[in-house]
# Entry
Amino acid sequence: MSAPERLPAALARRIALAAQGFADPRPGSGAGVRQLRRLVERLAVVQIDSVNVLSRAHYLPAFSRLGDYPRAALDDLTARRHVVFEYWAHEASFLPVRLHPFLRWRMAAAEQHAWGNIVQLQRERPGYVAEVLDRVRAAGPLKASDLDEPRPDRPGAMWNWHAGKVALEWLFFTGAITATHRTTAFEKVYDLTERVLPAAVLETPTPEPAEAVRELVRTAARALGVATERDLRDYFRLRPEAARLAIAELSDAGELQPVEVPGWGAPAWLDPQARRPRWIRARALLSPFDSLIWERPRVARIFDFHYRIEIYTPAAKRVHGYYVLPFLLGDEIVGRVDLKADRKDGVLRVQAAHAEEGVDRAVVAAELRDELRLMADWLQLDDVVVADRGDLAPDCLRAGLTPA
# Structure
């Protein structure tokens, strides 16, 4: 076997950005269903999160790559056309429907990974899950709030689900039901999977688990461009043993190329079809749940950028803010901003702005100003206002943004 190709770290960074869609020019307001569908196919996993201080997380990756697109077009893919479906992949995620057969092994193995509250429910109320499934079958689309179940008294618990929600989520995990859409309040609406997904998807034979894992690793490799083993298995949260076997088989078949990236400290694999751009001219605000940055060790390795989300950190202990978005300029992350969409006052609030060490703050502030104004327009907000917090805030104000 020949020695792995040695990829310069800067080239590996550009390959990773191109694979994630940052090498292409933005279509801006011309983006519609076709561009969104292509982007979801490219990313394969679009993470969902309920925090709405700025925007629901699944809308943001498309804005970062496409610019001022209509959010209703993404709703069209997920809630009406059903060419995208919801399931547990990286976390709760939207995925192209072609991947449904390749996740059925996870649905079939659900009993091996039962959570404590479903085990307790099945012990205390045997037959209840089947009753809920029968109700969905008979009555059609159903929300957890449609079930007359008392909510448990566990203040502050993140997963404070009543018995009906536990049963519905368990049936969702096993694949018996799926999400038809989410309400404006972000509540999931469930129905039988065969009444939601396209017939062609449902009729696709279920592959063996090893074949399915190979396809998931193959898909992750295309979405990442160049990646370590950890990167590849983290994309779909695969078990190490199964992922390693799949990587070895894909490497032997020539579908993954072993490479060495200085400074990465781990073997890496390259998608042989990955683009190798000479430059990246991106400008983007990145959601904390964006697939480019959701694995923090990979972010540190590729961008030398150390990032953590501080939502669950007490306010007095936060360093950069509550909902902080890294700012990508060219092929580097040059700053971070704590953002809030103040819908009542009609403004995008920059609650803090910080620059990375060594950047030209005036240049960064000017580019950030334009990106923030674009985001405000996309969110249908009238202005961008900047609080005096963070070392980049004065530069943002000098660039012409409004003081808070």
Summary: The two ends are 61 Å apart (CA to CA). Residues 264 and 301 are 6 Å apart (CA to CA). The mean pLDDT is 95.
